[in-house]
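Next up, sample data:
>
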Amino acid sequence: DDGNGGTDTILIVAHVDDFFDGDDSDSGCVLVVAATGTALQHQLGPIRAFRDSALLTNAAGAALVNAYYSVSRHAAPWVRQSPASAAAIRAVVSPLNSLARYYHPGR
């Protein structure tokens, strides 16, 4: 209870490093690395800024981020071996980057 008749919300946010023991832990977005190596890593800055300032600031956004990290850990090996799934990841990164830049110009 938060003392005001409501309940406290606890945000549990995991970082990608918490899920990996191998080389992916220091390379950023697990699915982008699985799909491209590091070819699109330069486009992830605005997406990370959006994650940190918009998603991780509320329970729904934090749940979405946690779900992504949980799923991506298991999906990465499949993405590495599937040209179609790798192409889908590559196709999503640029529009996400543009959307994140729209919401957070200058990042």
About this structure: The chain has a mean pLDDT of 76. The two ends are 37 Å apart (CA to CA). The CA atoms of residues 1 and 7 lie 4 Å apart.
